[in-house]
Design brief:
Two copies of one chain form a homodimer. By secondary structure, chain A is mainly beta. Chain A has one domain: Immunoglobulin-like (Sandwich), CATH 2.60.40. Chain A is built from one helix and six strands.
Chain lengths: ~90, ~90
C-alpha cells in the first residue's frame, strides 16, 4: 500500500488505529487525539491512548489504546456536532 | 484475510467503511447505523449511508456513504455521549 495516497483509517480490535492522510497531530492526551487529515479534522477518543508513530513524510500515524470513538469535526461545528443539528 | 477473525474497521476516504466481527445490524437509516459487534455496540454516522453488504456467516459488513463518525456505545454511556433527538 502506498501510504501517501488518500485518507484511510484502519482499526484492529479497538486497541490500535492506523491512519493515512494525516497532515498534523494538533494535540493529544491519553483520552483524545485531534488530527488534521486531508479530509478534515478528526477526533479520536478512548482511554490509555498513546501515539505509536506519526510521520509527516508518509502522512501516516498510529495510535494505541482502547478506542471509543472517532469523529470528523467540520467547519467550526465541533460543539454542535454532538447534538446533531443536521 | 480471514474475515471471521476478530473485529476490524477499515475506512477508505470517508466514503466506504468495511467491518469484521459484526454480529448483527440492529437498525439503520441513511444517517446512522447501529451494529452489534463482538466488541460492543457500534454506531456509525454519516450522510447518504447505504448498506453495501452484511454477511452473518463471515460476520462482515460494509457501508457506503459520507462517514462522519463512529462510536462504541457502552454500558450507560450512550446518553451523555450522543444526545440524539430523533
Amino acid at each position: 500500500m502506498d501510504m501517501k495516497q488518500g485518507h484511510t483509517v484502519k482499526m484492529d480490535g479497538r486497541k490500535m488505529i492506523e491512519l493515512t492522510g494525516v497532515i498534523q497531530v494538533e494535540r493529544f492526551d491519553s483520552t483524545e487525539f485531534l488530527l488534521e487529515t486531508i479530509m478534515g479534522k478528526l477526533k479520536i477518543r478512548g482511554t490509555g491512548l498513546k501515539m505509536k508513530y506519526f510521520d509527516t513524510v508518509n502522512k501516516s500515524a498510529a495510535i494505541e489504546g482502547r478506542i471509543t470513538a472517532f469523529m470528523y469535526v467540520e467547519g467550526g461545528m465541533g460543539k454542535s456536532f454532538f447534538r446533531r443539528s443536521t
